[in-house]
Amino acid sequence: MTTLSTLSRRWLLTALLPATLLSQTVQANDTRLHIYNWSDYIAEDTIANFQKETGIRVTYDVYDSNEVLEAKMLAGRSGYDLMFPTARPFADRAIQAKLYQPLNKEQLPLWGNLEPGILKSLADIDPGNQFLMPYMWGTTGIAYNVDKVRAILGDDMPLDTWRLVFDPEITRQLASCGVALMDDPIEVFVAAMAYKGTDTSDYSRNAITDAAATVSAVRSHIRYFHSSQTINDMANGDLCVAHGYSGDMLQAQARANEADRGVNVEYVIPREGAVIWTDVAVIPADAPNVQAAHRFLNYLLQPDVIAPISNYVAYANANAKATPLVDAEVRDNPGIYPSDATRERLLVLKTPTNAEARNMSRTWTRVKTGR
Amino acid sequence: MLKRYPLLIVMLILGYLFLYMPIVSLVIYSFNESRLVTVWSGFSTKWYVELFNNKPLLNAAATSIKIAALNATAAIVLGTLAALALVRFRQSRGHKSLGVMVTAPLVMPEVIIGLSLLLLFVAMEDLIGWPQGRGLTTILLAHITFSMAYVTVVVQSRLAHMDRSIEEAALDLGAKPLKVFFTITLPMIAPSLLAGWLLAFTLSLDDLVIASFVSGPGSTTLPMVVYSSVRLGVSPEINALATIIIAIVSTAVLIAGVIMYRQEMNKQKRL
To answer: How many beta carbons lie within 10 A of that of residue A70, not counting itself?
Structure first.
């Protein structure tokens, strides 16, 4: 979830790095645990049950963006024992800056419950899965208003495709009813590359220029670029097609169903491939209560603990043993738990270098302003 | 006069609508049955019930109000002192630089204030061991820093327009400067102190960026919870909480307004 521009994030990184060198590890202490996570990104009774079982007093604080989390990590001595950043690019950069401590697998006997596929997808940024424990994961795909899109494109047109947002012939027909893209250069360019069938890990100048041309070709048919406004607009039927995170788009679907005004939203993972994102649990290098953090992580590894969390937040968890325990409503939703065939086509976002990120931001501004 | 300018009345009504319609609709939708904040589906108080069962949200609201009240009180004291120095010691050499430094937070971007304070607190902890970790204390210190600037401006303008002859008369009659300050100056600038207190309270309650940077374990404020819940969907519980806060704040402002009006009336009578 990117809000600050990539450029200013880079700047934060360099500005804050010296501070981390000053901080030191504090003595372990087992009676308290400080968790830092998104609001409501856990089941309502998880913390209470853990406190009852272990007697450890838990404080649960919330942040509103990965950037705030990153800034606090870089400043050092944040005081938190467990955090839940998005793997790419945030955890990736933090590992490089040596901000996390390796997980002690001896204290995590249930580690084997994790899905090997998800662990493997993180191995390139975290070799040997030393630092990151996958928590929840999802995709970046397309949501569409079933009735309106079918009325325009007919019943035969397949809708699980990036053509809905990148094929000028199709977007021209959908333009009047509303097409929105995310305001996120990497997500949009990689989606455009997937649509064209080119290498999605190639961030060279030429590749980005090509991807930008794909977006520019449909620019006049795009109503707006925004990463979260789409939730309400899809739910109210003000938009026909939106590019967005699975969690957001499924939220739009749930709200549309709740409002019961005949708006039918469907989320699909395009057949050409879509980006997979993973939120991970990490222990900061200077965490005060390392033992308690490990106990909580092992608690989360229990299938009967993580399954209710998936039910509550409606995201897929990374625990293979928990899948049968998840409510059928969540488990059978292909937007949350995609089929094995779809999962094979999911793409991992490479973290861009400074130069690549700058080039992407500049190109993105040009595309958005239509110049 | 109003009768002759119907256009003025229309503009006035439009202006009020522009300012207060969003708040009115927020209050109305807090009684909405549906989870959607844009679709009306029937009257219900269920979001108020849910709010009172939502411990994290209530805790955050309590934290925010506590910080805001302490912040406003401290900012009033420091801001008044700064305003006094700025108005009464115009000849002193430090006058210009004090003025610039005190009011700098007014124009500084919040991100910069937040980040520099965060770095300062971390460096201080390493050097002198205080403040230990970050939490309520650091948020409070940060908020006082920028609230003080606003209070200074408010109190300064009142002080500048104050009639000094009354103070001089008191001094002539043998009152000590401290006594003059508490019995003459303070009562005369009281309305601006009240206004400054309310302003500082609101600014602190409202602040997300600076607090995010300098908060620590166990010090989540209300704006953090509200913005953080965007990830998994905002519920009308927040409307319900906002409605309660609006009710409390408007009562407080109303009382403050009545007090200020009475004082103004008394003053005019005396003159």
So the answer is: 25
